[in-house]
Amino acid sequence: MLQRIKRIDGSIVLILLLLMGISIFSIYSVTHGRDRLDGMHINMLQYYVMGFIAFAMLTLFDYRLLVRYGLYIYVLGIGILLLVSFFGKVKNGAQGWIGIGDLSIQPAELFKLILILFLTTVLVRKNRNPLRFWRDVVPLSLIAFVPFAMVILQNDLGNALSYIVILLGILWIGNLKFSHALIGMIIAGGMILGFILSYINYHEQMVNFIEKGLGKDHFVSRFDPWLVPELASSTASYQTKNAKTAIASGGLSGEGYLQGGSVQGNRVPYLYSESIFVQIGEEFGFLGTAVLLMLFFILIHRLILIALECRDRGGPFLIVGIVAMLLYQILENIGAMIGLMPLTGITLPFISYGGTSLLINMACMGIAMSVRLYGQDVEDDLPQPLPLKS
Question: Which residues form a coiled coil (predicted)?
């Protein structure tokens, strides 16, 4: 065990500590002196303590056992999502929370990790054989589509889209045929482009369809500021418009910690959660955001190195799924704040306030570190996943 512990990647631990510091100071900046929010930075510190405990436990736990029982974990996760669909609490327009005492847990966040595990379980059984479209790609897509549809019905677009990104990332390294990948990208690109053009050119008809046909008024307030800002209501465009103004005012080096005009004036909603990047952009400027992005880049680089060094078939699938999840969250969150992506409520990993999101991200880091510790074993000696019924 001591030899395994020596394999722990100190760079990842250091980056997590630095991200913790950035998170706590940023949350303090946007919550201090505000009655309902004051003290959130202390809560976040407590979440980080729990997160590092989860990180340590999963680091020392053999990740191959999780892959072995991936099917059962997936079924349990679907059951929890069903429970949320009927008894979940509504927050910010999304019915995606379960209340346990004073705590609120968001199962859609947890399911990201569950989906990564189960997709890995299925792909490990393929034994590096090329994926066939009907027998492999379609069933794998259905595995992701079931929770996607359930979470969409809960009005949680951000987390639902993350399932698709995770699926695409894992399929990409799952020995998918190039022709299938190319056709898939053309179809997906065409559908996205078609939706964007239709929304812009046939705005009224699309809005009527989304609001009356699908019953998703919440989505219109997300798409309008992104695609047709000139037609968006002042309420719908308030967050994006003020976020862009605040980030632009930060300039090169920012207005100074606790000195941001928009941040301290509370002109941007949800500064402690999905809009936390605005605080960094306004108070620390381009240089501050560049440092944050560099930390994310180094973290993802170290994760990819773990995947490349792994001798087990399942380890790289897990790592790529985690990397795809993190990249999506980072790009979507920052992109939404500067108007390049729609607002979906996705938080900035390791920085935004939120216990469920942080614990899942720290658990993912623990599993990634477990891959580094246990993925170097000779593959013939690795425990195989439980067989899945055909």
Answer: none
